[in-house]
Amino acid sequence: MRSALEWSHGEARAQEDLRLCGAMHRFWFTRGYVAEGRQWCARMLAKTPPGEPTLEYAKAVNVAGSLAWHQTDFLAARPLLEKSLVLSRALDDRWGIARTLNNLGCLAIEQGDYPTAQTLFQESLALWRELGDQRGAAGLLGNLAMVAHECGDLVAARTLSQESLALSREVEDEGRVADALNILGNIACDQGDLATAWELNQESLAIGRELGDRDCIATSLSSLGRVAFLRGEFGDARSLYWEALAIRRELGDRLGIARTLEGAAALAAARGDSLEAARTWGAAERLRQELGSPISPNERSRNDRYAAVARADSQDEGAFARAWRQGGEKPLGETIELAFGATIAQR
Asked: In order of start, what are the domains of the chain with their CATH numbers?
């Protein structure tokens, strides 16, 4: 594939180059080549001569924005996605509009703007349904479920996830099946049904491994880590978080790293190491601040409970606060080494 891209880039075929970018998007994302995909998109877009925008150009800009979002480079992602939306509207490309609205909604979620995310997802869903695209509709139902779950509305999240799962199975989209199973597993975990949560996330993980979808694998591993933690299986939880964190680091997914560290911090608190927990939470908090990605209401409620217990267990408010501050000041690798050991910190 790299040879084909190099060959195409060497020829005077701007539209073919852009078409390749559009076609390679899912491969770059699922197989973990996000950084390389961004580089190719930048090269292809820079090579495109000025003139009337085309469908291929608008789609390539959308892909570039989507890949930037996947790497949590939100400052780069937003102008690219907004440009793609303007171009798609000008070209009356309803598929392009639906895709870009979805990506802008995903960006809004990560930046904590849930009302905007919901509005964008609903607009995108309406377009997919008008177009008769069941695959696109299944994905949007899953994204709306994610908004509901992040905001703590478990009833709506469950209903939307079940709709997404049924539709994804109908159109045989295994990637979206895995996503829906993961959300349903997380809902079951929130409701205390740990056996169901484990089963659903194991199924999601198996699909992710079969597809080679590294983001799905890391997400499922983190979810399983939380279930193991709640079952009191601390060694298994640590191993699962460890594996998820290694993948997140390889993908350059800093928000995924922050979320995994938050799980590891709760685990450290449960093991009785309050200061390690504080340092790990401090590192996660710094990452979120750098990214401009606040913790969701659902996650905050959970983290605040664990942090309150850890703070009380430390029996030294000053030491706990200093450890939290140190976690935010230390190089990230040092904090990861303290939480997981030197092996993963060096990966």
From this structure: 1-132 (1.25.40.10), 134-212 (1.25.40.10), 227-347 (no CATH)
